[in-house]
Amino acid sequence: MAQAVPRLPGAQVRFVFACRIKQPASLLVERELDAELRRDGVRARVSLLNEVPQMLELLAAADVCVLPAESLYAKMDLPLVLLEAMALELPIVVASGGPLEELGCGREVGAVIPPNDAAALAAALAALHAGPARRRTLGCAARAVVEAHFSIGAVSRQHEQLYRELLATP
């Protein structure tokens, strides 16, 4: 993400990195990230946040939610932040090759980019930034996916079906 920021022109484009510091080594990574953003001359366009107690409010202020992780090690298979963003009608940008790519359930809800590809990430974000109508279309599709597959009712029905199948098995 940090390498994509300098590729996106325009001071009006702002970024929020919401990365919870879980261990002391993460502080070093944050300092390196800060130095990289300063070196590239884009630090003023980026807010580095640690814990975000009001994540829904932050998402509500965003145009896009980006999680280009190549690995979900020590994370949920489907991070709640993406489901919350989709429920708020935000398009999402995720890396290919994992469960995040399947989050759209066959519908276009944002962009899927190759992992570790800053140019592809920047291109996807530039396209989304330039097209508010497209963001709205993708956001509506994202909300429909959440309602159909990840809402309390949908998940409850899926669990009930699983229980019926398991109870019917000899």
What proportion of the residues is helical, as a percent range? Answer: 40-55%
Largest sheet: 3 strands, parallel
The helix/strand class is: mainly alpha
Give the strand order, joined by hyphens, for the main sheet. 3-4-5
In CATH terms, what is the architecture of the largest domain?
3-Layer(aba) Sandwich
CATH topology of the largest domain: Rossmann fold
User: What general form does the structure show?
Assistant: globular
Strand content: 5-15%
What is the total number of structural domains?
2
Order of helical and strand elements: EHEHEHEEHHH
Structural topology:
Layout: E1 15-18, H1 24-39, E2 46-49, H2 55-60, E3 65-67, H3 80-87, E4 92-95, E5 110-113, H4 118-130, H5 132-150, H6 152-168
Parallel strand pairs: 1-2, 3-4, 4-5
Helix pairs in contact: 3-5, 5-6
Short description:
Helix content is 46%, strand content 11%. The chain has two domains: 1-53, no CATH class; 55-170, Rossmann fold (3-Layer(aba) Sandwich). The mean pLDDT is 91.
3D structure, described in words:
By secondary structure, the protein is mainly α. The protein has two domains: 53 residues, no CATH class; 116 residues, Rossmann fold (3-Layer(aba) Sandwich). 46% of the residues lie in helices and 11% in strands. A three-stranded parallel β-sheet has the order 3-4-5, with helices on both faces. The mean pLDDT is 91.
